[in-house]
Amino acid sequence: VLDSQYGMYVWPCAVVLAQYLWAHRRSLPGKRVLEIGAGVSLPGVVAARCGAQVILSDSEELPQCLQRCRSSCLMNRLPHVPVLGLTWGRVSPELLSLAPVDIILGSDVFFDPKDFEDILTTIYFLLEKNPHAQFWTTYQVRSADWSIEALLYKWNLKSSHIPLHSFGADKEHLASSSLPGRHTIEMMIISLAQSEDT
């Protein structure tokens, strides 16, 4: 835990997503994984340590977050994990030339509603390029008024809720906070709505 600025802190959502990855560690070797909004990169680091081929990304406009990704890799003996600047909602050369992915990770990326559509635009672009991929995401319920349902429909995406108890993440004091008390964390998997037909 370094700093409570967005990408400089291990948020409880990152710990929950890392727990999900650990629970599914036997399926990760050889999987191609991209973490978006990685910051301190706990989920991506766990995936890499479990044998996945990981690429970490954060906003190209936040060089300190990209440096934090690199530092996390070095501290965890993962010096060869690539770190890319990818800004949500922006089609950049880095996004266009991205290698195929199987799993996209995002912990607490649904933080500010003004970013929700940019995030889902990027996810839609990635899933269109990789129709069998999935977006594994955890988020903190901060307002009952915040919803991505209409945006999922708009972008032809579907979500599946993953109960925290199904992977041991409903324990008290996970991420040094009482769950589900002070932090109400949820997990979902987002995929193309018609991925079975592609």
Task: Describe it.
Helices cover 29% and strands 19% of the residues. It has one domain (28-192): 3-Layer(aba) Sandwich (Rossmann fold), CATH 3.40.50. With 198 residues, the chain is an alpha/beta fold. A 7-stranded mixed beta sheet has the order 3-2-1-4-5-7-6.
CATH hierarchy: architecture? 3-Layer(aba) Sandwich
CATH top level assignment: Alpha Beta
Shape: globular
The CATH topology comes to Rossmann fold
Largest sheet: 7 strands, mixed
Task: Calculate the mean pLDDT score and round it.
Answer: 87
The rounded distance between the terminal residues' Cα atoms is: 42 Å
Number of domains: 1
Q: Low-confidence parts lasting 5 or more residues at pLDDT below 50?
A: none
Radius of gyration: 16 Å
Q: Helix/strand-derived class?
A: alpha/beta
Let me know the number of strands. Answer: 7
